[in-house]
Amino acid sequence: MGRVKKKLPDELRDSFALSVKVTNDPAEKISKLKKGTAAFIAPELVDSGLPSDVSGYEVKPSWDVAIRFQDLKRLGNIPPKEKAVLRRRAIEGVLARAYDILGAVIKPERHQIVDFKTFIESGQRGELDVLSTLDEELARGYSRKTLVSEDVLRFDARLERDVDIALVMDASLSMTGEKIALLAVSTAVVALCVKPTRLSLMGFDSKVRWIKRFGEELPIEKLVERVLELPAGGFTNMELALNETAVALSRQNKERANVILIGDGKYTEGGDPSQLAERFRHLNVLKIGRDQAGRDLMLELSARGQGKFFEARRISDLPRTMYGAMKRLLR
Question: I need a labelling partner for 248 at 20 to 30 A (CA). Which of 14, 52, 107, 281 fits?
Answer without folding.
Answer: 107
